[in-house]
Specification:
Blueprint (H helix, E strand, L loop, with lengths): L2 H38 L5 E4 L17 H10 L4 E3 L5 E3 L2 E9 L4 E8 L12 H12 L17 H5 L10 E5 L2 E5 L6 H7 L10 H4 L18 E7 L6 E6 L20 E5 L4 H9 L5 E2 L15 E13 L11 E4 L17 E4 L8 H9 L3 H8 L2 E3 L18 H4 L10 H10 L8 E7 L3 H15 L4 E7 L1 E3 L3 E2 L4 E2 L4 E3 H6 L9 E7 L6 H4 L30 H12 L3 H18 L2 E13 L3 E2 L15 E2 L3 H7 L2
Length: 640
């Protein structure tokens, strides 16, 4: 190479280096400028509201036992697809998808291309986040009634039953934004897309979730993919409240799109310090603009003003068939090993266990008698926004995946709505059951006044049969667990003892428990399928080598019921599937491992100053595009 050529090459390299440095500097400057510009612009409305009752855990995998949690979490996380109010499936995180069928090779696949969007910390929402969330649902150590929603995926069922490794699951992140799903066969793809609208299946960050068991209980350890992020939550009496703030990265290219393009409000602010009367007076005064949970004590006064719709949930009582119910013989004794030696803990103190008692709820006659004693109509009237349950599946649930065909329309009334105490006593007598011998508890969530009222009425009904019934009121406690990542105890979070009892190993931590059973995919199948042992999605005891599949958390395990749901899972015929679901509900309402009490209803109040508060199929109001009239008047006084 000549000297001239060397000089030209060096000059060219120098020019390129200067250009790169200038570009880097420009990018950094532009980023800073974007941040500065966004600090100075009008960010949008600060909307004060009473969105829902207090929530203490924001993990979407366990959202479907609490109506209040569902209302908040649906704003924090984005599913792959969404169901509109009229039941139409629309793409949410998904940009496009393709279905591949090859009957010759017996390969059936779907590829999903995700939109380019971000978590609330600016990180891309990736295909790996979907893979992680779904594998978490299907891990043998985890319990989730939503597991069945993924059972069309190749090896999903075998993975959940411990027969195959989680790495054998037929889902792969092809690249950052492409997900490939392999199926067991030629599935019903329309139903699978509806399943993917469930908030139980939203993507999650492995780097967040796997680091801390309590990640979902405080804003500092939660990242959100939906339109809003959890900015703050306080459980202290003096400033108890919650604030959702716009996720500034949601679906947005910051260099091209302004703040209000995809999410209109800036903040949704909930003040939990107010009494029921103060909440409603604030609404009347134009100080709060939406009431998503009309306080129980004042419901009757607003029954004519509220917008009422059927909810996707039924308030039920789970009866634990494995619970040893005190019949006068139950006592706490020292545990002993096989040789009869006392077992001690790490502090050399005796380990105590319960001996005696009877599995009262394993007796179907007892369960039927308990159901007969309940006056569902009276309870519905006391709750105000409710209907007396005549079966398990709620009126709003679809029969399959068409909103024009609701399950209850063709379903029979399988339960009486009025009490028949005489018939209940006759049943117990015929079975040789002396109710006065037995003492048991109903576990109920302390923070829900309506649930407390229902529990008191059921308690009285069962006491009329002679049973000794207590209320196990499950509240929250200040967390005392060590965070393994920080080696500190986080005192600003709360442990929900209700969830601890509901999700205890194989349901051993409750006797009877009050649950809002939610149609996790909007249809009847998600209400009925989990009661079949092979589809229950319960955690497996990995301490033994004979990995035993656990039945539903109630302990219910009916061969007849299991066979019906097995046939339902195998058939492709839509009419046959509907027929089988109705048959399954009839069996379940005869056996009654779960006792339906009322069908829940949504009752909301929306100020005239709010618009675009449009419903989605799962929720009566969705605030992504909400607009508030003259919101500038409220910005200064509500800013935090």
């Amino acid at each position: 190479m000549t000297t001239t050529k060397r000089l030209l090459a060096l000059l060219l390299c120098l020019v390129m280096l200067i250009s790169c440095l200038a570009a880097c500097g420009s990018s950094t400057d532009d980023s800073k400028k974007d941040d500065e510009d966004e600090e100075n612009v009008d960010k949008g409305a600060y909307i004060k509201m009473y969105l829902a009752d207090e929530v203490f855990d924001f993990d979407p995998a366990y959202v479907f036992n609490n109506e209040s949690a569902a209302k908040i979490i649906s704003l924090m996380y984005e599913p792959l697809f969404t169901l509109t109010a009229n039941g139409k499936v629309e793409k949410a995180l998904v940009k496009s998808y393709k279905i591949f069928r090859d009957a010759n090779s017996e390969e059936y696949k779907m590829t999903i291309n995700l939109k380019k969007t971000f978590w609330s910390d600016g990180t891309y929402v990736s295909a790996d986040d979907v893979v992680y969330a779904w594998k978490r649902i299907l891990e043998v150590e985890n319990s989730s009634e939503a597991a069945y929603l993924l059972y069309d995926i190749k090896n999903a069922r075998a993975v959940k039953e411990g027969e195959m490794s989680i790495d054998d699951l037929g889902i792969y992140a092809v690249d950052d934004l492409v997900l490939e799903i392999t199926f067991e066969g030629d599935i019903d793809y329309d139903q699978f897309l509806v399943n993917l609208t469930s908030y139980a299946l939203v993507p999650l960050r492995e780097d967040i979730v796997s680091r801390n068991d309590d990640w979902s209980k405080k804003p500092a350890t939660i990242t959100c993919s939906g339109p809003f992020t959890l900015r703050s939550v306080s459980y202290a009496d003096e400033d108890k409240g919650l604030t959702l703030e716009r996720n500034q990265y949601y679906m947005r290219d910051r260099s091209k799109n302004d703040l209000l393009k995809f999410v209109t409000p800036y903040r949704l602010i909930v003040d939990y310090t107010k009494t029921a009367d103060e909440i409603m007076q604030s609404y009347a005064n134009g100080e709060i603009f939406y009431v998503g949970e009309i306080p129980f004590s004042v419901r009757a006064s607003y029954a004519d003003q509220a917008e009422i719709t059927d909810a996707l949930s039924t308030h039920v009582y789970y009866l634990n068939e494995n619970a040893m119910i005190d019949d006068g013989t139950l006592q706490e004794v020292e545990a002993k090993d096989a040789e009869g030696n006392p077992i001690v803990d790490e502090n050399n103190k005796p380990v105590m266990v319960w001996e005696g008692g009877e599995k009262l709820f394993a007796n179907a006659t007892v369960r039927q008698a308990l159901s007969l004693a309940i006056d569902r109509e009276a309870i519905a009237q006391a709750v105000v926004f409710a209907k007396a349950a005549t079966a398990l599946v709620p009126p709003a649930a679809m029969e399959g995946y068409d909103v024009k065909t609701l399950f209850r329309t063709a379903g029979k009334d399988l339960l009486a709505t009025s009490a028949d105490v005489a018939a209940a006593k006759s049943l117990l007598s015929s079975a040789g059951i002396d109710a006065t011998k037995y003492t048991f508890s109903i576990t109920v969530r302390e923070s829900d006044e309506a649930h407390m009222k229902i529990a008191e009425m059921v308690q009285a009904a069962w006491a009329s049969l002679g049973f000794n019934v207590n209320l196990d009121v499950a509240g929250v406690i200040v967390n005392d667990d060590m965070n393994t990542a920080t080696e500190e105890v986080a005192k600003d979070i709360r442990d929900d003892m209700y969830n601890e009892k509901l999700y205890g190993i194989n349901g051993q931590t409750f006797e009877v428990i009050a649950v809002d059973a939610f149609a996790t995919n909007g249809g009847a199948s998600s209400m009925l399928v989990p009661f079949a042992k092979q589809f229950a999605g319960q955690a497996m005891d990995m301490s033994t080598l004979d990995y035993i599949v656990s039945p539903h958390m109630t302990g219910y395990d009916s061969e007849e019921y299991n066979n019906v749901l097995e046939e339902y899972h195998a058939t492709k015929d839509i009419a046959k599937k509907a027929e089988l679901l109705h048959k399954a509900e009839e069996i379940l309402m005869k056996d009654l491992p779960v006792i339906p009490i009322i069908y829940n209803q949504n009752a909301i109040m929306v100020s005239d100053d709010l618009s675009n508060v449009n419903p989605i199929f799962y929720q009566p109001a969705y605030f992504k595009k909400a607009k508030q009239k003259n919101y500038e008047l409220y910005t200064e006084t509500t800013a935090q």
